[in-house]
Amino acid sequence: MYFHKEQKVNLQELNCDGTILDIGGGGEGVIGNIFKEKVIAIDPRRDELEEALEGPVKLVMDARNMDFLDNMFDYVTSFFTLMYIAKKDHKKVLQEMYRVLKPNGKVMIWDTCIPKPFVEDKDIYVVQLDISTKDKNIKTGYGTKWSEEKIQDISYYIKLCEDVGFSILDRKEGEIFSIVLQK
Ligand SMILES: C[S@@+](CC[C@H](N)C(=O)[O-])C[C@H]1O[C@@H](n2cnc3c(N)ncnc32)[C@H](O)[C@@H]1O
Questions:
Q1: Which atom of ligand 1 is nearest to the CA of 28?
Q2: DSSP E strand boundaries for 61-100
Q3: Given the CA of residue 79, which atom of ligand 1 is nearest to it?
Q4: Ligand 1 shell residues, CB under 6 Å
Q5: Could you give the C-alpha distances from 166 to 66, 103, 113, 161, 175, in angstroms and in order?
Q6: How many distinct helices (H) and strands (E) make up the chain?
Q7: CATH, domain 17-113+152-182, list 2.40.110.10, 1.25.40.390, 1.10.10.10, 3.40.50.150
Q8: Residue 145 is inside which H or E element, if any?
Q9: What is the pLDDT of residues 92-133, one digit of tens each?
Q10: Rounded Cα distance, 14 and 133, in Å
Q11: I want to staple 55 with a disulfide (CB 3.0 to 4.6 A). Which of 5, 11, 36, 40 is the partner?
Q12: What is the torsional sign of CA 17, 68, 162, 159?
């Protein structure tokens, strides 16, 4: 495993008024930790959802093909989830996010750059995070397969999001990045 140096994520000022769909909301379930019962957390892995704290409604569901009707949510969030999804499926996931969002609804994406593999024998890329929310600090690491196929950065996602029809409201660039989109 290759451990990238720890990155800070400040979510202390994060505000969402309305319903939130969190894709890949298992594991630490950071968005569910913050907004609790306002969140519907979906994840295809039951064990990951079971691990996440109580509060959100948890549903076993794949973001590539969601069972929700159109125009349901005020927000859709992806907190270090797209890095776990194959690139060939990213457009489909973004199209699904667009579909289930209400008109003018917002998407918030946090993710990491994954560089071209530069160390031999390291096939997992781990981004280590120090996340601060209003009431706690969470230290965690998210690791994904590290291969040429996984290379990604913010420009890759901006292009995809624009292709799907989103407007880009905000972006924060760096080794980890965040993007705010509007339908
Ligand atoms: C490790 S978590 C990332 C962090 C998580 N969002 C959190 O707050 O801790 C990534 C999750 O994405 C999920 N995932 C992978 N493919 C997915 C898909 N197609 N749809 C939704 N979730 C997916 C994984 O099962 C995993 O639980």
A1: 9
A2: 73-79
A3: 6
A4: 23-30, 42-45, 48, 62-64, 79-81, 84-85, 142
A5: 19, 11, 21, 6, 23
A6: 4, 10
A7: 3.40.50.150
A8: strand 137-145
A9: 999 999 999 999 999 999 999 999 998 888 899 999 999 999
A10: 8
A11: 36
A12: positive
Entry pTM: 0.97
Whole-angstrom distance, CA of residue 37 vs CA of residue 55: 5
Give residue 34's identity as a one-letter amino acid code: I
Helix runs in 36-138, H state only = 46-51, 90-100
Question: At which residue do the structure tokens 């024998």 appear?
Answer: 121
Residue 153 pLDDT class (50, 70, 90 cuts): very high
User: Which is nearest to 113 in space by CA: 30, 177, 181?
Assistant: 177
